[in-house]
Amino acid sequence: MNTPARSIIVTIGDELLLGRTVDSNAAWLADRLTVLGLSVARIETIGDDTERIRDAVSRARSDSALVVTTGGLGPTDDDRTLDAVTAALDGRTPDLEVDNPRGVEAARWFAPEGEYGAVLVLPGPPREMTALFPKTETAIRRALEDRLGSVHTRTIATTGIPESRLAPRVQPLIDDLDGVAVAFLPDLQGVDLRLTVRDRPDGEAQTLLDSAEQSISEVVRPYRVSAPSGDVVEALTEALVDRGWTVAVAESCTGGGIGERLTRRPGASRAFLGGIIAYSNAIKRDLLGVPEDLITEHGAVSEPVAKAMAEGVCAAVGADCGIGISGIAGPDGGSPGKPVGTVCFSATTPDGASVATQGFRGDRDAVRRRSAQAAMVQLLRRVEGGS
Amino acid sequence: MNTPARSIIVTIGDELLLGRTVDSNAAWLADRLTVLGLSVARIETIGDDTERIRDAVSRARSDSALVVTTGGLGPTDDDRTLDAVTAALDGRTPDLEVDNPRGVEAARWFAPEGEYGAVLVLPGPPREMTALFPKTETAIRRALEDRLGSVHTRTIATTGIPESRLAPRVQPLIDDLDGVAVAFLPDLQGVDLRLTVRDRPDGEAQTLLDSAEQSISEVVRPYRVSAPSGDVVEALTEALVDRGWTVAVAESCTGGGIGERLTRRPGASRAFLGGIIAYSNAIKRDLLGVPEDLITEHGAVSEPVAKAMAEGVCAAVGADCGIGISGIAGPDGGSPGKPVGTVCFSATTPDGASVATQGFRGDRDAVRRRSAQAAMVQLLRRVEGGS
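ok -> structure tokens follow
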């Protein structure tokens, strides 16, 4: 088996060194290069300085098969990347230019024959960079063919189970299959499993990936996100559209965050009608029809109130399905019985209602994001026909 | 005037090279180091590999006064930073350990006397790292006293005007003042001005910063965000609390994003009651009381509808102030008269209502964020007593 070819990412811009911009390009590129079969050995961020850019590119080329730069292009004085890369390549002109559908500056591809490090120069604005990179993948593959070998990957998205519980159940099943590797890739929304097969013909690789997927399917099923993007929002919207159901949200601790997520993708209006942000108890009572004595008896953060919120928003809005959520996002407001991080949520469909209480870890932001995700997953499982 | 001492940030973790985690630590640290008076010459991201970490730290020390590392600490096999840093410093033990209030691993500070690069080792989880760094600032200042000189900065947050229009009006006024430098720091929410005075005694520096602030105050006033954090949400909440007013939101294109932002900080309930997410026209009509013929005549994306939404949510919820927002976030749904990016919004207070229409640039996400920000600013200006 080949070792993966090494790549190095160089992101360029004074704004990155001043800490004004979080560098999202590096992570996006690292993910794509990994899927292409390259390993990312290093990410380096430097300022808009011709000499430093030239040095960084020269050093990176001596140590990797591919160097990708972002930023520092374009018509202003700050934009020095192209001069610097040309200098690092002794005056060479690009082997390929790819027009930018969302901006002015093209992508440039330098692949000196017989030499080591090829260089891909991309613009810095993320929406331009992400549109251009895929158009260069064929060139990258061709130039690095010998080094890359063939790589087949398949990603299985899960949510609702931490890596520490998922990995010990999945890893042994994969270890039994010769030639398949698995990586566990966690973030705030869940854990992706990436299955990888290297250096096998297409058909054989697909058969291996199918067996791997099959052998872990039972363990993974309760947590799997079926959407191609691995995004619960996409899976939920498509599942609702399939059933011809609409949805509305009643949000307290998340303050509108579930609605915001459900409308982040275009086409949300095929299922999403809207909702009520019931931050105050008066709104829970007056607009959602949650009985006052339910709040008095159980507290605003309780399963009966979450359920009444979900049912109330369905009635108010005329939706088929509802999400109700109420919790203690912190940092204050916790009590011994209901510590910070306690969130109650409920999902209703025409078939009935589910309720749950969970304790979420992390700061205010993490509690809000994680609980929003859990509530959407709860509804997804109901709509998919589970409990 | 001293040139600022150079620093280098090294972030460590295989997950960063796989592109699974966006590195927010680097930007946070770069901002703080800049405010301390250091320049950040480079940010380098590497994997959990002892030899690579040692090499990166050694190289960085030879080239800077301060090296800050994050990540790769802690009890698992992957965590190799401390061994590697100790090796890079020839076995030296830390000069200072600072306990971690939010986790297990302490911060370690190495300041070899008479040598060049001091090293600060921080844990990777952002909430631990951001809690620990401020506790090390005194040690950094003391160790780098000769190199840092004194630095006094003041940040003035603005919103609602792009850097390209603000800079030509502000820069000449600052150029007239000897010893004050200004940097323009833009992001999606607005542009911060950072005024810097180096190597002057405290009193003199403050006087200089006061004059600078005074001389640009007239130009900046219409766009200034008064909150200490520079965050419009904080400014708006405090302004509402000052006047004893409550607020509710009626959101269409933002889908709950304004409510989500208004509740991101603890204490939001002092002013924020909740709102209605009126993604469908039926909700605009039934829950917000927007007259059907207003929608038919002007369209859902129109100033009269935005105003009726703001007034409707105040009435429905019993709030003093309201925000109504309706727009075309894209990528579809635009027309020649109302292209993608067109957003109408309205702010009402007990003193009356404002309405506006703006064309926002960028993709769906950018249009939603920018328009949410503009709508909150519109209400802030009204509550502050402007128009």
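The domain at 151-225 of chain B is CATH 3.30.70.2860 (Alpha-Beta Plaits).
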